Structure to design on (316 residues):
């Protein structure tokens, strides 16, 4: 993999990005041709320049919002292949979050290709699925964007369970995965039904696209991807389990902090409809550690991070 110095941002791009704004259309036209690290800096600049002075509240999530999701073209979650949200896109779930720059350090001792070989330049967004209430539990979620030279980014979103982790407000209490058990309850069942419009397996995201290209934009000759990945939290990241705004915790995490160990599990006999919460610990115990996610910046809460950036879903 090229060193960060070899992949540094051209001086002209630094000047253009620092100029904030008047040439956005020109930058957008050239964006896809940039290196992975240049894209990261461009996106991070937009995060920083729209940083909130105070944390905005979550909007209400109820019947009206579910109706809005029904009318929204959810197929865009899969078909909109861009790092920027489509026009008039409304984020109903994971509305508020925080973002940081990250790197994915691979162990180099596995068979998986493409993005799984490691990335120096990526972004992570941590959020709750919705605002916790007396009847709605704490549901941590993660969106990862691994940027590529002159090529579309690799994206994946992970959850613990759609219905969350009870009333425990420690964001790093449980592992997150691209496949989660089907949840009970009216809310999760309605969300399941909505996403069933675009996939027969709403609780499962494929990571095959992640294995197709490396950070340098090189196509994998023989792509190899796991069925399931788990992000297991760094045990030293422990926050209060009592009710509070978890964003306040995440904003204290320093650059250079290991967030997660990444595990891959390829279960040929996996049955989507038989996947139960008790299988999570069992699958992790059988999984192979393939790397770790480490921050390369502080976390920031921003307008662009909440509404402007886009994390594509690749449904099974």
């Amino acid at each position: 993999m090229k060193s960060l110095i070899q992949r540094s941002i051209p001086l002209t791009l630094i000047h253009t990005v620092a100029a904030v704004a008047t040439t956005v259309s020109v930058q957008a036209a050239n964006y896809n041709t940039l290196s992975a690290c240049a894209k990261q800096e461009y996106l991070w600049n937009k995060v920083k320049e729209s940083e909130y002075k105070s944390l905005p509240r979550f909007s209400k999530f109820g019947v009206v919002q579910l109706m809005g999701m029904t009318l929204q073209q959810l197929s865009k979650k899969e078909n909109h292949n861009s790092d920027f949200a489509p026009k008039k896109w409304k984020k109903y779930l994971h509305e508020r979050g925080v973002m940081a720059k990250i790197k994915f350090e691979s162990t180099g001792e596995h068979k998986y290709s493409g993005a799984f070989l490691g990335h120096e330049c990526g972004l992570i967004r941590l959020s709750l699925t919705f605002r916790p209430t007396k009847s709605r539990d704490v549901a941590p979620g993660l969106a990862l964007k691994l940027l590529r030279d002159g090529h579309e980014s690799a994206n994946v979103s992970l959850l613990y369970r759609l219905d969350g982790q009870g009333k425990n407000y420690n964001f790093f209490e449980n592992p997150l995965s691209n496949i989660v058990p089907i949840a009970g309850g009216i809310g999760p069942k309605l969300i399941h039904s909505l996403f069933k419009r675009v996939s027969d397996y709403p609780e499962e995201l494929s990571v095959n696209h992640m294995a197709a290209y490396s950070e340098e934009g090189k196509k994998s000759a023989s792509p190899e991807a796991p069925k399931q990945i788990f992000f297991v939290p760094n045990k030293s990241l422990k926050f209060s389990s009592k009710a509070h705004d978890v964003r306040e915790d995440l904003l204290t995490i320093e650059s250079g902090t290991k967030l997660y160990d990444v595990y891959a599990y390829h279960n040929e006999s996996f049955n989507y409809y038989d996947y139960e919460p008790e299988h999570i610990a069992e699958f992790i115990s059988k999984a192979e550690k393939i790397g770790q996610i480490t921050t390369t910046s502080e976390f920031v809460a921003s307008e662009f991070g909440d509404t402007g950036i886009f994390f594509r879903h690749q449904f099974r």
